[in-house]
Amino acid sequence: MDAADMGRDLSNVLISEDELQAKIKELAGQIDADYAGKDLLIVGVLKGAVMIMADLARALHVPVQMDWMAVSSYGAGTKSSGVVRVLKDLDTDIANRHVLVVEDIIDSGLTLSWLLNNLQSRNPASAEICALLRKPDAVKVPIDVKYVGFDIPNEFVIGYGLDYAERYRNLPFIGTLAPHVYGGE
Ligand code: XMP
Ligand code: MG
Q1: How far apart are CA 93 and CA 112, in angstroms?
Q2: How far apart are CA 102 and CA 46, in angstroms?
Q3: 15, 38, 40, 133 - which has most CB atoms within 10 Å?
Q4: What number does the ligand 1 atom closest to the CA of 109 have?
Q5: Which residues form the Phosphoribosyltransferase domain (predicted)?
């Protein structure tokens, strides 16, 4: 895809590269303060969290280990159902570890609420969540998200790890898709 195609597919830039990077530094500062003197394991949820994990990990000063999980949530169409399948589990035993789950976006919150329960059953010292983006529906789920980058409107977003049909993950900013891309006007 060339730049012109990319331009036509995007309806607008919601969060610029500069805004993303500034927010990640801010989140890293909070995490550094909260985990000072602790041994932290950050867990990225594949594939969407790849970009935020890479940037957040480099912005942190506390020593961290990194691990990854891949999950798929079943559901009709684009909505998640809360029924989650683990496609790739952690390589790390998290018993007595401080775990911070890093996620790209919380929509219904069902995926993360399942994931947090699953991790808590492994007896970590603590388990918290850092999500770059949060959509309005997330308020309906009683899930405590300690670190949130941006609250965004209920629109489908792409870029910086987020995809539409596996495309656009490599954009350095967050954008919204033009309706013609997903079959609208
Ligand atoms: P729930 O509803 O369980 O789902 O919180 C979270 C997962 O849904 C995906 N998701 C999106 N992916 N643009 C995307 O590329 C979006 O606007 C969007 N909204 C939700 C995402 O995989 C996330 O982990
Ligand atoms: Mg996705």
Answers
A1: 19
A2: 10
A3: 133
A4: 5
A5: 18-164
Query: What crossing angle do the helices spanning 17-34 and 50-59 adopt, rounded to 10°?
Result: 60
Active site residue 107: yes
Q: Does the beta carbon of 113 lie inside 6 Å of ligand 1?
A: no
CATH number, domain of 61, equals 3.40.50.2020
Residue 185 CA to its chain's centroid (Å): 29
80 part of a folded domain: yes
Single pTM value for the model:
0.91
- Verify whether ligand 1 is closer than 6 Å to residue 51 (CB atom): no
